[in-house]
Amino acid sequence: MATDYNNPAFDYAYEIEKTVEVSLADGLTYRLEIVHRIKGYARKDYEVRYYTQHSVSGTATDIRSQVAAPSTGVDVWVRDMSLPSVDGMESAELALESALYWLADRYEHRNNPQ
Questions:
Q1: Which of 14, 18, 39, 103 could form a disulfide with 5 if both were Cys (CB 3.0 to 4.6 A apart)?
Q2: Contact (CB, 8 A) for 37 and 45
Q3: Element (H, E) at 22
Q4: 50 pLDDT tier (thresholds 50, 70, 90)
Q5: How far apart are CA 60 and CA 66, in angstroms?
């Protein structure tokens, strides 16, 4: 059964068709979401959204005792808008292939400046 997004209550709809994590040789980790745009977009095609992993630390407060807990850390994924756009692709595989190309190219330029 196909999902029906035609209800007027939905302005936009997309499905994350695939998620891939790539760790570069320099230790930087990316998460790539291959998104199938379904409703509310000019074209129903695929795009890639890039995320980088960051550690966030702070002090958590226990609400019940109002005592500050020791410093805690958590990893979060932050969208990286600095990479070239990969959109308008006809398939999830083409979108992923293009995104991997851009990541490898960025890695090469960052680690082999000319």
A1: 39
A2: yes
A3: strand 13-23
A4: very high
A5: 10
Taking alpha carbons only, the member of 81, 84, 76, 3 closest to residue 36 is 3
- The H or E element that residue 39 is part of is strand 29-39
Residue 18 buriedness (CB in 10 A; 0-12 / 13-18 / 19+)? middle
The mean per-residue pLDDT over the stretch 1-20 comes to: 88
CA 17 from centre of chain = 12
Distance CA 76, CA 62 (A): 21
DSSP 8-state assignment for residue 100: H
- How does pLDDT run across 77-91, given as a tens digit for each residue? 999 998 888 888 899
d(CA 35, CA 14): 6
Q: What SS3 string covers 45-96? A: CEEEEEEEEEEEEEEEEECCCCEEEEEEEEEEEEECCCCCCEEEECCHHHHH
Owner of token pair 């995104």: 99
